[in-house]
Amino acid sequence: MQTGTKISAIAHVTLVGWAFLGGAFRSEPLPFDVQDVSVISSEEFAALSAPVQTPEVAQQPDALQQPETPEVEVAVPEAPQPESEPEQQQPEPVVEPTPEPLPEPVVEVPDPQVSEDTAVLVQPDPEPAIDLNPPGKRPKPRPVERVAPQPVALPPPDAQPDEVETPPVVAEEGAEEPQPEQEQTAPEEATDQIVTEAEESDELAPLRSPRPPARRPSRPTQTAEQSTPQPASPSGVQDALAEALAGSQEDIPLGPPLTGGEKDGLRLAMSRCWNVGALSSEALQTTVIVAFSMQRDGKPDAGSIRMLDSSGGSASSAQQAYQAARRAIIRCGAKGYDLPAEKYGQWRDIEVTFNPERMRIK
Amino acid sequence: MMKFLVSLFLGLSLMVTVAHAQNQPLRIEITEGVIEPLPFAVPNFVPDSGAASELADDLARVVAADLSGTGLFREIPASAYISQVTGFDDPIKFADWKAINAQALVTGAVNVSGNRVTVRFRVWDVFSDKEMEPGMQFSGTRDGWRRMAHKVADAVYSRITGEGGYFDSRVVYVSESGPKNQRRKRLAIMDYDGHNVQYLTDSSAIVLAPRFSPTGDRVLYTSYESGFPRIHVLDVGQVQRRVLESAEGTMSFAPRFSPDGQTVVYSLSQGGNTDLYTMNIASGQAQRLTSTPSIETAPSYSPDGQQIVFESDRSGTPQLYVMSASGGEAKRISFGQGRYGTPVWSPRGDLIAFTKQNKGRFHIGVMRTDGSEERLLTASFLDEGPSWSPNGRVIMFTRETRGENGRSSLYTVDISGRNLRPVRTPDGGSDPAWSPLQK
């Protein structure tokens, strides 16, 4: 055995021994870590754990921005001019036993003077106009449905409800004996008859019920309570805590990764609706990567579908290939893909590569 | 201390791995889909007045027929409609069209004012709930309503497939009537779908192989009017013709325009030998391209005008060759079994269509310009004379049936080999040549 080999063997044995046994001969104390913590009060914690406040919005909503009239950018070819009347050409005489009829001259099809004018096409309203303002008076709050022998008027604003009406007593300056302060009380509002919703006057009900908008308004209306400015978070630690609390509320089950069979099932389901029959030859050369999010019920979120990347074709062909992929995702996901709900976190976000290599014309 | 650091490192790595896995989207790849016609709906166009009612229906039917005839689309019958389109600007009830699986929807309106017709249309992507590009309108005379319908169909086809259409085009062909031994032939021109047939010549002389100019206003053809084959140039609009100059005792045939329309390439037979020539139409100056003892014929330019594909039997059997448009050495591109002929370069420039005879059957096929990826699209007793549609997606050719009473007729086939269908003509037809899209 070579000397070098011996030295190498001894060194390796020493190294392996040190790695396994080195720690046993150490007597150093376990490390003692100190972590900085911030002490927050219960009010601060309550403020952090409270729901996220509605963002501050203006009192008056901005005027709705009307969509611009789409400008049709279409190449306008010149309208073909009407061609002159064709001249009839006599065929050269042909010696035949039975004379052939004269050839019909080509009567040029009257060019329809087809012009590709840019159509001023008014886009139809996607939804009927919504009148957010009720046409009638705003309905008053319904009275308390409580029948009492004697109707009692509304108590003063500051009075506490009580069976016995008590006048307010305040300390009078200069009095010989100071009187104990006493809060004003009054009986609860009561009425002696029940007025149902059907018996209410027409003025209270709106004449029509406005249809809610299809989407949540981007700038929600602000209530008086919500307009109260909330104290800003005193520190970044509280922001982090609030973010962590908010994040924990989603409660998305991660579960183990999808099995091969589950992935194949999803792949097969989408491929059934991936129709490349109407794609151009160039689009059949284009591979697109499409990303989208899934809802918990296995239905794709159509608004989240987007093309991440494309290769092998022009931008136009990529767009055609993307549209075919998009239709496949939506069509076959209309009833929800069969995916395990306990693994929602694994398939919430999906990226699909649509590669038409095997579908090309060969 | 070391153990702690190792433990910390491993813990952090595990956390990073878990977090990474949680944030990673699920990735899958799909390599196989389905090839089937795309379902679409074309409700009858909305007439602006009672006078436009019939025309509105006819326009919508022609648009639907154009799209369905490609084999790429399948029309959903009106009986399946859940909702109707009663106003051109009415909002579309996409849910109703999704329910019947209509993936594209074409809506339109027609206005008639005197002899003036205006057609407006929109194409909707039903599953995206939006319009495919802005709407358009065409205006024309009442007589040209079919052309307007073809133009609408071209626009719809282009928006859905991403490539140009071919519906607003015409075909010149040889109309044939009578039995095989007494067949009468004359030039005819028609819309691509067989409508509006008109005749350009009488049947006093045999005519062969008409070819459109790149602008579609002239036609080259070969006529035996003088007893020998001669090349004629015919102005389609004026029905005026003239003979291209050629020497006495020669035969010229198989002409085809260059992409710029200034030059004609053709075969000239002299002294028992056939070679390729070009001729400037304006000056009449000819140039010889090949000089071999074999037969060279059926030349066709590449779309850029730089190359010519032709048929030659210099190797013993007819095969396909490619050479420079100015002549020179030719390169053989067909090496399969059988005989190859009548090559035609695709308008896209990527394929060459040809006729092949092998084992007693004729085929229409396509191959790459280098001869690779040969695919046979048809097979019958006699198929020949392919011609490309303006968008290079469809091939029209001649099919002749067996027997003394065999009939020649025109067929089309998609370059995928699907959607083989006949073209309706009043009589028999052969030697079709597809025009470019009309302006």
From TrEMBL, chain A:
Highest rank taxon of the organism: Bacteria
Disordered as annotated region, ranges: 50-240
Biased composition (Polar residues): 221-236
Biased composition (Pro residues): 94-104
Ranges annotated as biased composition (Low complexity): 65-93, 105-117
Protein's name in the database: Energy transducer TonB
Organism: Falsiruegeria mediterranea M17
TrEMBL record, chain B:
GO molecular function, one term: hydrolase activity
InterPro entries membership: 6-blade_b-propeller_TolB-like, Tol-Pal_TolB, TolB_N, WD40
Region annotated Disordered, chain positions: 419-439
Domain of life: Bacteria
Subcellular location: Periplasm
Domain TolB N-terminal: 26-132
Signal peptide segment: 1-21
Gene Ontology CC entries for this record: periplasmic space
Keywords: Cell cycle, Cell division, Hydrolase, Periplasm, Signal
One GO biological process term: cell division
Gene3D superfamilies, per the entry: TolB, C-terminal domain (2.120.10.30), TolB, N-terminal domain (3.40.50.10070)
Functional summary from the UniProt entry: Part of the Tol-Pal system, which plays a role in outer membrane invagination during cell division and is important for maintaining outer membrane integrity.
UniProt xrefs under HAMAP family: TolB
Family: Belongs to the TolB family.
Self-association and partners: The Tol-Pal system is composed of five core proteins: the inner membrane proteins TolA, TolQ and TolR, the periplasmic protein TolB and the outer membrane protein Pal. They form a network linking the inner and outer membranes and the peptidoglycan layer.
Protein's UniProt name: Tol-Pal system protein TolB
UniProt gene name: dpp5
